[in-house]
Each structure stands twice: as C-alpha cells, then as structure tokens.
Amino acid sequence: MVMGQKTFGSLLFVLAASLLSGEASAFFKKDRVKRDFRHMDANRDDQISREEWKRRGNFEKLDQNGDGYLTIDEVRGIYQGHQNRDYDWPPENMTPYSSKIDPSIATDRVSRDELGADVICGLGRAKHCGTAEQIRRGLLETGTGPVFPKGVDCPGVDDYWAMNYSYKRNRDSFHGGIDIPVPWGEPMRVVASGAVVNMYQAHQSKRGYEVIVRHSPEDTGLPMWTYSAYGHLDRLPDFKPGQRLAMGDIIGPTGNSGISARGKKGSGAQSKSRRPAIHLAMFYSAHRQFGEENDTILPKEGYWLDPYAFYRQKEPFLSAEVKALPEDEKAVMIPVLLEGGRTIPANTKIIWPYSCR
C-alpha cells in the first residue's frame, strides 16, 4: 500500500470535517463545464467549433473574441450568475391564471392497455425497455437548433435534443428533451395555450417537479395534439387538472429538482450537482387520448417530438424525416415573448419557454 496510515488518516479527517461542515457536496462536485467541454471537443484541440457546438444556440454571444471558436472559459459564460438562489416569488405583475377547466382532460384519459407496449416502452422508457423502441418512436438526434430574432437576447441550450447520454449513464441513453440553463427562480412559461394534464413531485423522476400541458391543434396551429412537459421546477404551482393556461403564463420558478442520475427515489427536491435549468420535453399524436405510465403522460399512438420540429411549425414532425431535411432547414427561427409582453412575430401561437430581452 503506497499511502501510509498517517496520510490515509489525514484524508479521512478532511472528509469527515467536510461532511460536518456541510461542504461535502462542494468537495465531490464535478466540474460540469470541464466534463462537457471534454465530451464536445471531438478533435481534442481545446476549443469548440460551431459543428462541435451542435447548434445549442447563442454561439456568437459566447464567442467573446469573435474567432469562431469557444474556449472553456467562454463556455462557462452560459452559467454565469446562475447559482444565486435568493429570488422573490411570485414575480411582480404576474398575470392571474384563468379559472376555466377543460373537462376533456378527465374524459380523454385511457387505460394502460389501450396505450400499447410500444408506446409504453418507446415514450415511457421503463427500465426493462431498450432504446430501439424509443428510436422508432422518434427519440433520435436530428441536427436541429435554435436561431433567435436579431437583436434579441434569449437563454440558449446546453444539453440538446436526443443527445447521447451514454457517457453520463454508463448505458445506452438519449436525452428526451432540451435543457435551457437559467438563473434560479427564472419564470418558466407555457409555450402555447393548453390545459394542465398532470403534475409530478420532485422525488418521482430525474425531471423533478414537473408540469405537463396538452395543446390542441387550435391552441398551436399545428395539425396534431402536442404535449409539453416542464421539468426541474423549484416548486410546483397550485394548478388543477384541466386548468386552462394562456400562452406565456408562468408555470413556476426554475430550479434543479429531480433524482440525480444515479440517485434513488425518495429524494430529489434539490440536486447537489445539477445546475438550474428547464428540461423541456414534447410528445405528439393524431389522437387526443392519453394515458400514464412510469410517471409520464403518454399520448395514445404518440411519438417523441423534437422541440425544434414544434418551433418549425410545419411538417415533417417525425424525427427521422426531420433528420433528413437539408441542413439549411435545421436552423430554426424561434418565436419569442419579450419581457414587455410583445411577441416576435406578433401573431405567434407558440413561444420559447423563457421571456427574452
């Protein structure tokens, strides 16, 4: 044994002191940017090109010296000022919610048997299911990414749609949404008018406190029923099942709730390592009916929806067909809500889940 008893004892003392002083999480916390930078930097040249950035958005904003590449210090800028948890809630001048209830949320719910095993495995992702059915149901990388209106500052993405999470999970795993890191307490906003389907507690999944909203074709202008899920809230709102929300209504404050990647159920109100961010996931179906499995709302005969396919506002929506689009069609202009209440474009029915400046 190389380490002597005295050295080993000193290390134990440091660990014990760290635990007693409440600094254990800081002692063990991984450098997220360093880990993710290493994963993005495919050619190991210590800089991230536009191609390696994978259309996460805001490349020019982060590229402070304008050389067309991102250094690790420039990438750290995406999280600047995000760790202060001292925020006021609710925000000033928060718009009151509608008292209208959509009764079809209760009547459109179907049994597990009516969903079918392919939907339960492909969208519900139970532990016994592999990734093949998930891919068939649309969970595959498409190469899409956001473009924000000129002169507008919107929060961008770090973990992108269908990103391969195998290096984080030590098993085949794909990211079922997009993550947008923002400061603690930043108000999450519903991306389109719709009705609340369900809410989940922080200990139920890696997504933490989560609200799921169903949008009709009339709500979005799209030719199908869509579902948007808002994860990692810092607290749950007091919504009722079926409650109608208007586009841009505040769902709740951003947090980092949810079970850690290797955590156990029973905790998760606050992660020790995750940054505050929304996890925005989407499904779609030609049918209005839905069910529930593995703490997930599953549309009947549903498919995963790349959020950028949603924001394109036109066919195709099936991920394999989105992936086959020409590259110039994969840079998607995002409709936004500005802090003063104006939208770009003016007549949009859908918006980014955070207001922009």
What's the layout of helices and strands?
Layout: H1 5-20, H2 24-28, H3 32-40, H4 50-53, H5 59-62, H6 72-76, H7 104-107, H8 112-115, H9 117-122, H10 132-136, E1 145-147, H11 166-169, E2 178-181, E3 187-189, E4 194-200, E5 209-215, H12 217-220, E6 225-233, E7 244-245, E8 250-253, E9 277-285, E10 290-293, E11 296-299, E12 303-304, H13 307-312, H14 319-323, E13 331-333, E14 336-337, E15 343-344
Parallel strand pairs: 1-13
Antiparallel strand pairs: 2-9, 3-8, 4-5, 4-7, 5-6, 6-9, 9-12, 10-11, 14-15
Structure overview:
This protein has 357 residues and is α+β, with helices and mostly antiparallel strands. It has helices at residues 5-20, 24-28, 32-40, 50-53, 59-62, 72-76, 104-107, 112-115, 117-122, 132-136, 166-169, 217-220, 307-312, 319-323; strands at 145-147, 178-181, 187-189, 194-200, 209-215, 225-233, 244-245, 250-253, 277-285, 290-293, 296-299, 303-304, 331-333, 336-337, 343-344. A hairpin with a 2-residue loop joins strand 10 (290-293) and strand 11. The chain is globular. It starts with a helix and ends in a 13-residue tail after the last strand.
